[in-house]
Task: structure prediction
Amino acid sequence: MTFTLTATVPSRGVDVTLDVPEGRTLALLGPNGAGKSTALGLAAGTLRPHDGEITLDGRVLAGARAGRTTTWVPAHRRQVALLAQDPMLFPHLTVRDNVAFGPRAQGRSRRGAGTAADRWLDAIGLAHLAERRPAGLSGGQAQRVAIARALAAAPRLLLLDEPMAALDVDVTPALRQTLQHLLDDQTTVVATHDVLDALLLADEVAVVDGGRVVERGPTAEILSRPRSAFAASVAGLNLLSGTWTGDGVSTASGAVVHGYASHPGVAVGAPMTAVFRPAAVSLHLRDPHGSPRNTFRGTVRSVEPRGDLLRVRTDQLAADVTPQAVAELALVPGRTVIGTVKAAEVDVYPG
Ligand SMILES: Nc1ncnc2c1ncn2[C@@H]1O[C@H](COP(=O)(O)OP(=O)(O)OP(=O)(O)O)[C@@H](O)[C@H]1O
Result:
């Protein structure tokens, strides 16, 4: 086991146990205030446990008993990188020098660090912005550079705190898929309240609620058979499997779903899955002609309350819509309805 954490922070009502095997990604999935950032702070060394022990590759990073610290490795000696929502790039350095910062700090020559930075900028698709300063980047670009900067320092453990939270919905699928590639062999913990992050980035999920891990297991298992209230409330994504046509996923029902797929070299005919959330679906009685959206004609099967919204299930998908929309469209079981979803809201991934 590469990373283990057992810690309490009574002042925050947090008492968590986590472990991540080498090269794997664990998602901490939970609502606001659940304790996810606290767990990351404990791992990064910005917060001390009251009780417990934190280890990385068998080395104790922090230990405490009844409020007394027994072992403490400071943050900069942990080989742990924490990436927060705010990319916090150095404003006076170019993009390349930001990324080269970690290797330089570790003693690499200027040239060696620059070469490493160029490799990472290539991996995140921003080699052409190497000479820019952070003020000239979009939010999504800045977040990519922050990821490259974190990885260039070759951390033993990468911690991501809500990596998509501050970004526009239009850029999150692209960033998520970049992360998917980059995290392949990287031991990572990603804190998120977004089930798509868990589904697409993580091998395993720990559902955190009220400062405790309430559920833990392989991502697919947790999301298909959720036992905790939070996992159940966020599960239920639309997953449409089919084959890759070159610009969309062709499903068994004959629909072609367009979405964001950055996987290079996917062969036409390869199995692919399109994922989108019920809240991204709008329902109509007539085809909204001329709109660049995916459309799905179906029959309403059920209508159930879902918080302030209603979840309408058709034979093809689930949509979360307002009670007013359900009333206006007179959505009752048996009615034919057209669901639409923007391609920008659809993630497409292999499998
Ligand atoms: N700096 C702080 N000082 C004291 N209490 C804090 C501090 N930060 C968070 N808390 C409290 O600790 C608990 C856990 O918060 P934490 O930020 O870890 O949750 P989270 O799951 O990361 O939530 P979010 O998604 O909103 O960031 C909450 O009750 C919160 O109010």
Notes: Residues 187 and 286 are 48 Å apart (CA to CA). The chain has a mean pLDDT of 89. The radius of gyration is 22 Å. Residues 12-14, 30, 32-38, 191, 193 surround adenosine-5'-triphosphate (CB under 6 Å).
